[in-house]
Amino acid sequence: MTAQIIDGKKLAESIKEEIKNAIAERERQMLPIPGLATVLVGNNPASKTYVANKIKTSDALGIRSFSYELDENVSLEELESLIKELNDNPDVQGVLVQLPLPEHLSEDKVMHNISPKKDVDGLHPYNAGLLSRKYSEPLFYPCTPSGIIRMIQSVCPDISGMNAAVIGRSSIVGMPTAMMLSRCNATPTICHSYTKHLDEICRQSDIIVAAAGTPKLIQGDWVKPGAIVIDVGINHIPDSTKPRGYRIVGDVDFDEAVKRAGAISPVPGGVGPMTIAMLMSNTLKAIEYRES
Ligand code: GUN
């Protein structure tokens, strides 16, 4: 058996097309169009690429982009004052501070400053808190977890009662993904570097979400036959045959896992494009909160 490939790029394209049409319709009706502010601190090359992609996609869909690049050594006060300005700017509906931040800046403190109504990342403690409450809805669901859920539902719309292994407990991916799987009535097990018998937990899981940042951590024979496997890993492996001197691999041993899984997402072309599509979707949604 060879798994169905969950093509995140294609799925993201169709979501972006819908957003583009919705924004064009707003323009026709002379309604305000959404604006997204991105804040990049320092020179992390991966962050630069991610932010550039976010700006490029905003522009392509008709979302106004406001881009800020701050020096590596910017003070917390300066960054907070920019965020306050963006919170107060009526042309900006979404405020995104790219993570990770340099060590002297507390991510928690910075996130607290973003208005929850403009928190298109869904990472503000107010929204993160609401995500974990059974009868509440956050204003925004975080982007990568939303993309993961959409990818899973593209091959299995109802995951009620399924066991899910989430490997990684970060605030951006692992934890909120587990919350969202639970909201879909699946039963998540949150695994991390101290988890014992990870292989056994995976073998009992109908869904595996790998977000550990360890190349090929999830081996082919850990995958339950027919399971849905979502690979969130982006790991750079030295490869002298590539022009850049490296290639990108995920957290799953794809070549082996594809033989057992029912459906599997590739790296690249899986979760990455979906994260950006969900950010655009959140930015469009943010217009709803504009005058509320
Ligand atoms: N760094 C890696 N992923 C993300 C994300 O989804 N949002 C932000 N703000 N930073 C990130």
Share in β-strands: 15-25%
What Rg is obtained from the alpha carbons, in whole angstroms? 19 Å
Order of helical and strand elements: EHEHEHEHHHEHEHEEEEHEH
End-to-end CA span: 51 Å
CATH topology annotation of the largest domain = Rossmann fold
Q: How can the largest sheet be summarized? A: 6 strands, parallel
| CATH-level-2 architecture of the largest domain | 3-Layer(aba) Sandwich
Poorly predicted ranges: none
How many E-type strands? 11
- Supply the CATH class of the largest domain: Alpha Beta
Secondary structure category: alpha/beta
Anisotropy-based shape: globular
Bound compounds: guanine
DSSP summary: helix tally: 10
Helical proportion? 25-40%
Number of domains: 2
Biggest β-sheet: strands ordered side by side in the sheet: 1-11-8-7-5-6
What would your notes on this structure say?
With 292 residues, the chain is α/β, with parallel strands linked by helices. It has helices at 8-28, 45-61, 76-88, 107-113, 125-131, 143-155, 174-183, 198-203, 254-257, 271-286, and strands at residues 4-5, 35-41, 64-70, 94-97, 163-167, 187-191, 207-210, 228-231, 235-238, 246-249, 263-264. The strands form three sheets. Strands 1-11-8-7-5-6 form a six-stranded parallel β-sheet. The protein has a three-stranded parallel β-sheet with strand order 3-2-4, with helices on both faces. A two-stranded antiparallel ribbon has the order 9-10. Helix 2 (45-61) links the parallel strand 2 and strand 3 (64-70). Helix 1 packs parallel to helix 10 and helix 6 (143-155) packs across helix 7. The model has no long low-confidence stretch (mean pLDDT 97). Residues 96-99, 121, 143-144, 172, 275 line the site of guanine.
